[in-house]
């Protein structure tokens, strides 16, 4: 891996808030609607689910880059990944007051790769 801290659970989020990290967990599509009535609706928003079940958004849902490319989703869905970027304990609010999920968030994402080791 690299010299960056590896974050695998909520404790790691608290310890490394605001830092560049390697986030390690399962790449999963999320239903970002305000009212999430079944069945789920996936529009391209994803999270990395950490070992303790904590979801970390890849960008806040209102952010343009939050809608991940279909090729990326097809490649990583359900796989353990390493996502490198800047970690926040809560997704920043939209400057336009758009709806937001108040979950931990990775910003300035530099890369997402399949993990080469177990989480």
Using the coordinates above, name the CATH class: Mainly Beta
The order of strands across the largest sheet is: 2-3-4-6-5
Q: What is the number of independent domains? A: 1
Largest sheet: 5 strands, mixed, barrel
Helix content: 10-25%
Task: State the helix count.
Answer: 2
- The average pLDDT is 90
What amount of the residues lies in strands? 25-35%
Order of H and E elements:
EHEEEHEE
Structural class designation: mainly beta
Terminal residue distance = 12 Å
What is the radius of gyration? 13 Å
What distinguishing features does this structure have?
single chain; 119 residues; mainly beta; OB fold (Dihydrolipoamide Acetyltransferase, E2P); five-stranded mixed barrel; 2 helices; 6 strands; 33% strand; globular
Task: Give your account of this protein's structure.
- This protein is mainly beta and 119 residues long.
- The chain has a single domain, classed as OB fold (Dihydrolipoamide Acetyltransferase, E2P) (Beta Barrel), CATH 2.40.50.
- Helices cover 11% and strands 33% of the residues.
- The protein contains two helices and six strands.
- It has a five-stranded mixed beta barrel.
List the helices and strands and how they pair.
Blueprint: E1 6-7, H1 10-15, E2 20-29, E3 46-49, E4 55-58, H2 70-76, E5 80-88, E6 105-114
Parallel strand pairs: 1-2, 4-6
Antiparallel strand pairs: 2-3, 2-5, 3-4, 5-6
Task: Explain briefly what this protein structure is.
The chain has 119 residues and is mainly beta. The protein is 11% helix and 33% strand.
């Amino acid at each position: 891996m690299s010299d960056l801290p590896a974050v695998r659970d909520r404790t790691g989020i608290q310890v490394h808030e605001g830092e560049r990290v390697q986030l390690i967990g399962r790449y999963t599509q999320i239903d970002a609607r305000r009212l999430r009535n079944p069945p789920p609706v996936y529009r391209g928003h994803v999270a990395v689910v950490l070992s303790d079940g904590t979801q970390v958004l890849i960008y806040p849902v209102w952010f343009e880059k939050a809608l991940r490319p279909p090729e990326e989703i097809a490649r990583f869905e359900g796989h353990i990944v390493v996502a490198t970027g800047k970690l926040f304990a809560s997704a920043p609010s939209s400057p336009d007051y758009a709806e937001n999920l108040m979950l931990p968030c990775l910003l300035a994402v530099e890369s997402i790769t399949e993990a080469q080791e177990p989480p």
